[in-house]
Amino acid sequence: MSTKKDFALANKFIAGGVNSPVRAWHAVGGNPLFVRRAKGSKIYDTSGKKYIDYVLSWGPMILGHAHPQVIDAVVKTARHGTSFGAPTEAETQMAQLICGAIPSIELIRMTNSGTEAAMTAIRLARGFTGKKIVVKFDGCYHGHADSLLVKAGSGVTTLGIPGSPGVPEETAHLTLSLPYNDLASLRDAITKYGSEIAAVIVEPVTGNMGVVAPREGFLETLRQLTANENILLIFDEVITGFRFHFGGYQNLIDIKPDLTCLGKIIGGGLPVGALGGKKEIMERFAPKGDVYQAGTLSGNPLAISAGLATLRLLKKKAADYSALERKAQNLCAGLENLFKEKGVRVCINRVHSMFTVFFQEGPVGDLVSAQKSDTRLFARFFHGMLKQGVWLAPSQFESLFFSFAHSQTDISATLDACKKTLKKL
Ligand code: KE4
Q: Which protein residue's CA is at the shortest distance from atom 24 of ligand 1?
C-alpha cells in the first residue's frame, strides 16, 4: 500500500492518522512515511526503502534498533508472562541500577511515560512543599499534562496561559513560563512569587526547541536560587538520561536536583518513564506517604526487561560514549563545511551525541532565537535528505540523535546525501 493510502486509511480510524502529532509531518508537509521495521542505524518504510535514522524513536534507541540482546531479553521475559500487577525482582534491579548511576536519586518510582513522570513530579512537589506555583521555561517540553501545557503570559513574569484548549485558565495560572537561559527573569519571578513557588522544572539540555545548551552558570544559579527559597528543582532528563554517559547530565555538571524525570533510553524502546529523587521527598508517595500516584503497567516486566538490557549494555559501553560523541562531532563538522561551501546559513547546536541544524545564522540560545529559523527551508532540506535515504526529525524544533550502531559509512553516506540535497535546495 502506498503512503498516501496508508495515511488515508489511518485517518479513518486514528485521530489525525497518528498516535502522536509530530509523526504526521505537519511541520514539513507531505504524507508521513509508514515504517515496517528497523535494525541498527537503519529504518525501513513499507515500500522497503532503507534510511539512516537520526530520530531513533525520539531518543530511546541509543543502542540502535532491534539490538539482539534487548530483543532476547524481551522475548525471554514474555514467555513467562507480560504483566502481573505485582512486584518483581527485575523492578528492584532496575531501580538499583538507576540509583547507582545517578546519586541524586535515592528512591525511584517507575511510570509508563515521560509525561507521567513530569506530571507526577509536579504533584509531588506541590504535595511536599504545600505550595502551588510551578516554573517552567519557554521551549522546554515535559509531556502533555495540563500544568505543563502552558505558554508564557503577556509579561515575562505574568502567570501562564493555556497552551492548549482544554487546559483551564485556573490551572495555567499556576504555571509561570520564563525564557530559557534567562537568570534575570528567574530572579524577578522568585522575588515576585518566591513564597508560592513549589518547583522549577527544566530540561538541563533542551531537545524540544531543538538542541539548546544551558548558558554558563544558568543551572548552577537555578540550583542556588531554588535551594535558598525552599523551591524544589526538577531536572527533566527524559532525553538526557543515559544519553551522554552512564548517568544523567546532572552528574557531568555536578548539580543535584531534588527530583529527576527519566524516560526514553531507560525503557529501551518500550513504554517507560520514571521519577526519582531525595528520599524524604519520594517517601511522600503512597502507599508510605499521602501523595497519590499509580499505574497498572508501571514497572511491567516487558518494559523493565528492555530497559534493564539496554542499561546493562550501556554500562558495559560506558567508555565508548566518547566515541559516540566523536561520531556526532565528525558528522556536524562535515555538515558545517557543506553548508558553508553552499553559502547556506545554518547554526548547528550539538551537545555530545544530540544535535540540531537550525536554518539561520544563530546563535540559538532560547525559544525566541530558535524561532528565527527558516522552517520552510528546513522542510525542503528534510524532504531532500529523505529522498537521499536519510531520516531526520520532521520538525526544525527537535533533536537528532546518534546511536552506537551508526557507522563511519553512515556518516559518509549522510554527508553525501547532504551534498546532493544542497545542490537541489
Ligand atoms: P512521553 O510522554 O512522550 O514519553 O515523554 C514526554 C517528554 C518529557 N520530557 C521531555 C524532555 C521530552 O522530550 C518528552 C517527549 N519528547 C517528544 C519529542 N521531543 C516525544 C515525541 C512525541 O511527542 O511523539
A: 20
Domain with CATH 3.90.1150.10 in the chain: 4-66+318-424
Say if residues 267 and 57 touch (Cβ distance below 8 Å). Answer: no
Q: Is the CB of 238 under 6 A from ligand 1?
A: yes
Contacts of 213 (CB under 8 A, 6+ apart): 205, 349, 351
Strand order from edge to edge, sheet including 354-358: 347-351, 354-358, 400-401
Digit-coded pLDDT (tens) for 223-244: 999 999 999 999 999 999 999 9
Q: Closest Cα partner for 268 from 67, 56, 61, 58?
A: 61
Active-site hit among 44, 51, 54, 141 = 141
Identify whether 416 is a catalytic site residue. Answer: no
| Nearest atom within ligand 1 for CA of residue 263 | 4
CATH topology for 68-316 is Aspartate Aminotransferase; domain 2 (3.40.640)
Instruction: Output the CA 414–ligand 1 centroid distance in Å.
Output: 26
Which CATH code for domain 4-66+318-424?
3.90.1150.10
Reported as a single tens digit per residue, the pLDDT across 153-185 is 878 788 888 999 999 999 999 999 999 999 999
Cα(265) to centroid of ligand 1, in Å?
12
At 282, the pLDDT band (50, 70, 90 cuts) reads: very high
Looking at the whole model, is its pTM more than 0.85?
A: yes
Average pLDDT, the chain: 97
Instruction: Tell me which of 182, 264, 327, 366 is the catalytic residue.
Output: 264
CB-count burial class (<10 Å; 0-12, 13-18, 19+) for 208: buried
